[in-house]
Every structure is written in C-alpha cells, then in structure tokens.
Amino acid sequence: MYEVIAFYIFSALTIGLFTVVVMSKNALYAMSALAGGMIFISGFFFILGAEFLGVVQITVYSGAIMALYAFGMMFFDTTRDVKENIRCKKIAYTLSILSSILLIVILCAPLFSQNIEALYPSIQNAGNIQMIGLVLFTKYLVPFELAAIMLLAAMIAGIVLASKKMEMNLEIDEEFEEAKDVK
Amino acid sequence: MNETALVIETIIKAVIVLSVTAGMGAFATWIERKVLAFMQRRLGPMHVGPYGVLQLAADGIKLFTKEDIIPQNVVRPIFMIAPVIAATTAFVAMAAIPFFPEFTVFGYTIHPIVSDINVALLYVMGVASVGVYGPLLAGMSSSNKWSLLGAARAVVQMLSFEVVSGLSVMAPIMMIGSLSLIDINDYQSGGVISWLIWKQPLAFVLFAIAGFMETNRSPFDTIEFEAEIVSGYATEYSGMRWGLFFVGEYANMITISVLVSIIFMGGYNPIWFIPGAIVMLLKVSFWIFLFLWVRAAWPHVRPDQLMWVCWKVLMPLAVINVLITGIVLV
C-alpha cells in the first residue's frame, strides 16, 4: 500500500516539476525544477528496489545540472524572464504532443502484446551492485568499453581546446595589469 | 500489519535523528565559539548562563524572532526555498548512516539506522553533494553580485571536490567489496589494528580534505569568505533563513565526521572496555574539534588554488592510490 502511495506522490511531483521545466520562462525556475524532477525520478528506482541506480541517478544528474547552472550563470541574467521567440505556437504544441503520445505508445506496446520477461533474470542472493557488475562486465562489456573510449576522446578534445593559453596564469596577468597601471 | 509498524518505526527514528543532530548542531556553534576563543586567547561568550552555555538559546531566540526580509528584486520562490534545500539535504543524507551498534530495549532489537540500504556510502555522498544546490540557488536568485560570485564558486568547488571524494573512497570499497556502511564497519571489527586508516592512509587524508571542502569549512570556505565576497551566497539572507544554512552546515559537519569515523577509524566497534556507542561519540567529537582546530590554525585558500590542488594534486594521487590498491589486491 505504501509503495502505491509513494509511487503516486513521486509521479505527481515529477510530472508537475517537468511541466514547470517546459512552461517556465525563467531560466532559474526551469533549471531548479529540472534538478528536483531528476531527484524525484530516483524515487522510482528506490521503490523498485534498484537502490544503486537510484543513487546513481541522484549523483550523476545533480552534477550534470550543476554544469547547466554554470552555463545559465554565464549566458543569462537568471533573475529575469527570457524573451521567447516562438513564431507558430500551434505547430510547436501539436508536434510536442504528438511526439509524446508516440513515445508512450512505443514504450507501452510490449505491455499489451505480451508479458515482459527479463532477458537476464536476477540472480538470487546477489546485491544490486553485483548484478549490475555481472551484466556490465560480461554481456555488455564491449559497449561499456566503447563508451569509456568515447569519454576519454571527449576529455582529451576538451583539454586540447581549453589549453591554448594554459601557460599564462593569473599571476602573469596581475603583473601585466600592474605594469599598465604604472604607465 | 507489519508494514505499518515498519513505517512508524522509521518515522520515529527519523524524528529522533533530526532532533538530536539539530540540537547537537546548535550546541556545536557554542563549542565552536568557545574553542576558537581559547585558541586565540579570548574568553568567548561568557555572560549568558554558566560559561555562556545559554548563549545558544539567546542566539536561537534572536534568529527566530528576527524579521524575515526578502529583498525586492530577488526570484522569490527560489530565494525562499534555497535555505530549506541546504538544511533538508544535510539531514536526508543521515538516513543511511548507522550511528551506533544495535541494542535491545524491552526485548526489541533496535538498529540505529533509519534505512539500511546496501549502497549507503554512495547515497550519503550523493545527497550531500546535492546540498551544494542550497548555496548555489541562494546565490543565483539573490540578484546581488557578491551572491552570484558565491554561487559561481559553489559550482567550481563542487565539481572539484566531488571527483576527489569519490575516487579516494574507491580504494577502501575495493578492499571491502561492499558499499554498505554496516559492512564497512564490520570489516574493521578486529580492534585498532584493523582500522582502515593504517591500510589506506592516503585515501584517508584525501577523503578528509574533500570533507572539509564539502562542508565549506575553512581553509576551503571560498563561497562565503567575508574578506573577499562579503558573505557570499548568504549576503541577502537574515533571520531564520540564514539560520537554516547554518544548521545545514553543522549537520553536514556531523555527517562527514560520522562517515570518516565509520570508513577509516573503525566505526562503532568497541575498543577494549569502552562500548561502541561511546567510542563513536568520542570519534565524532574529535572530528568536530578537528574542524574547529583547522579553522583556527590555517589560512584561507583562493578558489583558483583550490581547483589547482583538487585537479593537479589530489585527483592524480587518488587515481594512483586506486591503481596501487588494485595491483595489491589482484
């Protein structure tokens, strides 16, 4: 019974917060609601007994949205509303509603056609982490390693892009400023 | 109905943890002022009650009765909810921490942990990192330059220390093979020699440093450093909303102290004749004292120095530590 209550509370909160994300004109509201919604989604994982995934959801998304906040801080005055420039509201609403219905149909189709069976049934007497580790390092090892290599490439690219002026540090700048002041 | 009993028990535990840690946090403010005063050859609060003990009551009355000022140009809902986030996340993180060994009252065994999930360590660290949203939102909604600088520093600091704390705690986890804090505690049940601090000294130091960054204590209190950015994210706050930030900071200090005690310093295992609960209290008190001691003894670092030390010194050390641990274990 309590699981059902928790599920409905979490789903209402998640839907409400994500509605705010889409509808709000203030970047700060949108980002805060996104962060809250992501954290409430972890509640579903906890209800399903997948604690590891729930915690990963909290950790990963809190860090990711933190980076979004940093971008918001750099590009907007987050305390003011953003002026949106939507030409045709009707087309935007129709397309978004259609795509969301399509997504729901795609995800729910297996539910109606046949009962879903787990491809890799859960192992008895094994914790969350052990089960994820087994699947990740046996069945899905290649995609896992590929993702790791992609992240490494992205990291190297980021460092190369940012390292153009790395030999100039703050103190050199300060000396330069002082020299300018003296003149 | 068994489920209802569990829910009621959990609620009672949560209320006890909340009230006791909030009380301890309030008491810690008095301790902090006293310890800092003695280290600087002052007396500290002396007038209210014996040795100024009742000063915390006076402070509490002041905070509660102060006018709740919300400046005109702030983003109201975010401004109002930010301190609540800071305080709640600090307490929510405590849900998975076993504070004491289990004990029996009236033939009923009580586990002093609100919820025994088997990824407790990750949970505590994840929720504690969500706590940075409090200062961040406060700074961004205040429409004040000092607050915005504080918020920017909060992001920088969070993205820096998170890597260090995660990687440093990985080595002990590899040795134990479990993320449950109870398992980590049981692993060190063989007396002082079996403490993980002897096997993982580097991880211990790195985790402690990351803990100081996480709780915004000096030398890493860049986000509210008075001499640089007035009061950082909290510049526009007054009264109980500011008090909630304060409560959150002290609750975070207690969480980090308990976490370090459990992971590296043997947890609540009894030492010789001292029972486990007392041992735990002593360790946590020592860590709180260490937080204050460091504040009195060390100068403050700049944000760029903090990033430098995180990414160029601490992170490589943590990775090397994980690598060596892996080689030794295999």
Output the keywords.
heterodimer, A: 183 residues, mainly alpha, Four Helix Bundle (Hemerythrin (Met), subunit A), B: 330 residues, two-stranded antiparallel ribbon, 2% strand
| pLDDT averaged residue by residue of chain B | 83
Taken together, the total number of domains of chain B comes to: 1
- The CA-CA distance between the termini of chain B, in Å, is 48 Å
Question: Based on DSSP secondary structure assignment, what is the total number of beta strands of chain A?
Answer: 0
Number of domains of chain A: 3
Computed over alpha carbons, the radius of gyration of chain B is: 20 Å
Based on secondary structure, the structural category of chain A is mainly alpha
Q: Mind summarizing the main beta sheet of chain A?
A: none
The oligomerization state is heterodimer
Q: What is the rounded distance between the termini of chain A?
A: 77 Å
Structure overview:
Chain A has 183 residues and is an all-alpha fold. Chain A has helices at 2-23, 27-47, 51-75, 89-113, 128-139, 141-162, 170-182. Chain A has three domains: 1-83, NADH-ubiquinone/plastoquinone oxidoreductase chain 6, subunit NuoJ (Four Helix Bundle (Hemerythrin (Met), subunit A), Up-down Bundle); 86-125; 140-183. The longest helix of chain A has 25 residues, at 51-75. With 330 residues, chain B is mainly alpha-helical. Chain B has one domain (2-329). Chain B is built from 13 helices and two strands. Chain B has helices at residues 2-39, 55-65, 76-92, 120-130, 133-141, 145-176, 181-187, 196-199, 201-214, 226-229, 239-264, 276-297, 303-329, and strands at 103-105, 108-110. The A-B interface holds A 1-2, 26, 28-29, 32, 35, 39, 46, 51-52, 55-56, 58-59, 62-63, 66-67, 69-70, 72-73, 78-79, 127-129, 170 and B 3, 7, 73-75, 77-78, 81, 117-119, 122-123, 125-127, 129-130, 132-133, 136-137, 140-141, 143, 148, 151-152, 155, 158-159, 162, 178-179, 304.
